[in-house]
Amino acid sequence: MKKVALITGVTGQDGAYLAKLLLDKGYNVYGTFRRVSTPNFWRLQYLGIDSKIHLIPAELLDMGSMLEAIKVADPDELYNLGASSYVASSFEEAIGNAEITGIAVTKLLESVRQHNPELRFYQASSSEMFGDNKFSKQNEKTPFTPSSPYAVSKLYAHWITTVYRKSYGMYASCGILFNHESPLRGMEFVSRKITNTVAEISLGLKKELVLGNLEAKRDWGFAEEYMEAIHLILQQKKPDDYVISTGDSHSVEDFVKLAFELVGLNWKKFVKIDKRFFRPADVSHLKGDYTKATKKLHWRPKIKFKELVRLMLNEDIKRWTQFLDGKAFPWDAPLYPDESRIITRLSEENIKMRSIKRKN
User: 0.85 exceeded by the pTM?
Assistant: First the structure.
């Protein structure tokens, strides 16, 4: 008999890759999505799996709809990948982020407890929970010191999952995933912003790449193979928490430099720094220790930093080339507005106005 899985956030990068993995393993896959005026199924279409998934409209904040989704799917495994996942926006939408990324997980766990406490539950935790810590590497025992509303929300979700595991004996596990990227990454994330813009510059479509903090270091891995890890997490005899990472760390500047080198250009001629892309409180360095995952899950990363950047860049160049040739295919880049038209709390104009008011 086929196993049944329910994925919240199935239209996102991780949800799409996980859905494909589970389908390949013979699962019957259900996925929740938010009803919006403009559907966002391009990733599922890009992977060729949109017609193979049972879609359920649901809202993370609405416990009734989530309970209904669990009843409809009646899954053996539930992967909670739904969240407001962009760290920078959590400073602008702190309350909404806390509710969607944090509080909603309690509602989901309570729905599971009421319907079927025997199903296996996965919570997507984040390396951002470690914050700007003083440890050279972070593992499952490293103290959490969150540095953003997003990180605090993720930490709440992480701990409430642990509470339900200990209090009710539920099979509830967390994967503390470090930065994981791919050609399916959203354009608002710095990794994809870099590869997409470098692709445009290499084809003469754009003249500059505008970024914030180039010194921040992250542990960058490949999202598709990280989904293999989270599937393994739910196949263990006992629920537990695992760090999933590559064990290597590179700066945003390293990412930029390599991407431009791959197209034969000097990055310093094209990169511009804008203060509005700096976070009010940033994390300077993250590097994961995946020793436990290797020991217990027999998992280790295959694609490292250089190959990841090359993979993403080549795919973005391919997409823009196809676009210029008039070909139609599932893709997100043309739908994004020019960032210079987006006003944030840290926009240069706002910063100047604040400075003038303070002087007066």
Answer: yes
